[in-house]
Amino acid sequence: MRIADFALERFFARWEFAVEHLLCASDVEGWPMAELLARADPEARALWDGLRLGYTESLGHPLLRAEIAGLYETAAPDDVLVFAGAEEAIYVLAHALLGPGDHAIVAWPAYQSLFEVARSAGADVTLLELHESDGWRLDPEAVRRELRPETRVVVVNAPHNPTGMLPSREDWRDLARVCADAGVHLVSDEVYRYLEADPSDRLTAGCDALDRGISIGVMSKSFAMAGLRIGWIATRDRTVIDRCARLKDYTSICASAPSEILALVGLRARATVLERSRAIVAGNRALFAELIAGSGGRFAWAPPRGGSIAFPRLDAEEPIDAFAAALVEEEGVLIAPGSVFGHPGNHFRVGFGRDGFAAGLARLEAFARKRYG
Ligand SMILES: Cc1ncc(COP(=O)(O)O)c(C=O)c1O
């Protein structure tokens, strides 16, 4: 198989565990396992205490699938397939839905695997560009214009990485209609769901919005448990579940036994888990908004409406790559320049999910002041 390097992941492989201030992570500060286990109900605690480290059910633990189905309005446990993270779900889905001769439309900029795996599976991919000037809007009519007879999937991610864009309810409903009318699958990457800045803006999940809607979820972001490597798809299209299950036999076969139980505990405790994540993200997002407001135009953004990240812009002659390189070398503060998304211009990604954000931000602010006055 030939596939381009995943630029963002290569970037993190170099820096993530080497810097003092990680200001561009997309996950939320991970839960301490002991604290999580303390929240287990008696049934889950008994599963944990009696756990044997054998293979697990290929589709996912039945209780976990039921708990995940409960996140959606229309999904039954059999509409859920558990994966090793959202990343495996994306990989397997692309291979299940696409091949040579097929066409995919993917909103861009994007988490790279959302289009790169489709390409490597042989599909022709149209990157539908979003623009800061209209708040990174995902325009359903623009999607409709790109449809071809051989289009099989439309791939979107909302709340969006890297911009924090969240479609309006109207645009989301229209997009579902465009996909339903065309008979194509809507792959909806919802790993940042529940981190909407205003919870009343939360959208209907993709799997609930149309028969061919496929929601991708994960424990890593809003549920703050990236180390579990538990993700899933939910869709009422059972042929998709079946095709993905057959491909998963060639990737992970089944999920990690301890992780499945811990994910079950985390999902059952989701009111507390999500409250913690939302508080961390909201606090850090507000700090960054203050930096923007006080920067005299040096930094600008289309304010994120959801997720744990944003894609602000440095307004300076200096390219963002040079600024980011100096910032990490001199201050140990990591931001992700737009180039790791293949994006031109002077944008960079910041992430609001981690503890210690304020300290890193103060360094960034002082560094920019020193550099530009
Ligand atoms: C939009 C999006 N989808 C999927 C993933 C993959 O999630 P995971 O690493 O937990 O598998 C990420 C991770 O950053 C992401 O941002």
Nutshell version of this structure?
The chain has 373 residues and is α/β, with parallel strands linked by helices. Helices cover 40% and strands 14% of the residues. α6 links the parallel β3 (103-108) and β4 (124-129).
Written account of the structure:
With 373 residues, the chain is α/β, with parallel strands linked by helices. It folds into two domains: 7-32 and 271-372, Aspartate Aminotransferase, domain 1 (Alpha-Beta Complex); 33-269, Aspartate Aminotransferase, domain 2. It has 14 helices and 14 strands. The protein has a seven-stranded mixed sheet, with helices on both faces. It has a three-stranded antiparallel sheet with strand order 10-14-13. A two-stranded parallel ribbon has the order 1-12. The longest helix has 24 residues, at 270-293. The model has no long low-confidence stretch (mean pLDDT 97). The structure holds pyridoxal-5'-phosphate (PLP). Pyridoxal-5'-phosphate (PLP) is lined by residues 26, 85-87, 111, 157, 161, 189, 191, 218, 220, 226, 231.
Set out the fold topology.
Elements: H1 7-15, E1 21-22, H2 33-37, H3 42-49, H4 62-69, E2 80-83, H5 85-97, E3 103-108, H6 113-120, E4 124-129, H7 140-146, E5 151-157, H8 169-182, E6 185-189, H9 206-209, E7 213-218, E8 231-234, H10 238-248, H11 257-268, H12 270-293, E9 299-300, E10 309-310, E11 313-314, H13 320-331, E12 333-334, E13 336-337, E14 348-351, H14 357-372
Parallel strand pairs: 1-12, 3-4, 3-5, 5-6, 6-7
Antiparallel strand pairs: 2-8, 7-8, 9-11, 10-14, 13-14
Helix pairs in contact: 3-11, 4-11, 5-6, 5-10, 7-8, 12-14
